[in-house]
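Troubleshooting log. The previous structure file for this entry was overwritten by mistake, so regenerating from the original sequence record. Sequence copied from the archived sheet and checked twice against the printout by T.R.
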Amino acid sequence: MTVGSWPGVAATRAMRGAAALRRMTLGISVLLIAQLSIGMIVNLYVTVPVHHPGAQPANYFTGSLRSIAWAIGHGAPALAIHATLGLAVAAIAIWVAVRALRIQPGWGAFASVLAAGLVVGAGFNGASFVDFNHNVSSLLMALLALGALSCYLVALYLLPGHR
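Regenerated output below.
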């Protein structure tokens, strides 16, 4: 019997994996709360100009890239922070989903994958808001982010107990 095949070793690896996933899920949840908070500041105190690079694009994807680059480089500080953090949150959400699928397949992983999809959807609506200045995009962005946060709470609940 090799060291890696001992029953205790596999259980220890599973516990470490669950603990790491718990920390990652808690971390992305805190980042989402920060992102939602900054988004409220942007919603209340920042006016996105109607004319800027990327506004009213004929091609959504290239226009959105230009709009997000403008928001980060030339937008109000709260908007620049919100856009930058949004990109980071999307990348981290995808990373958490991949880790969840590897570490704990099942409903917890499903909740993490769904959360990542909702985060990406929130990002697309954020880009749409900067592109077209429609309030419904801002509303959808916030609702999708709240949905993602709810999924992460479910994922945390479904993880094996903390010692």
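The chain has a mean pLDDT of 91. Archived copy saved in two places this time.
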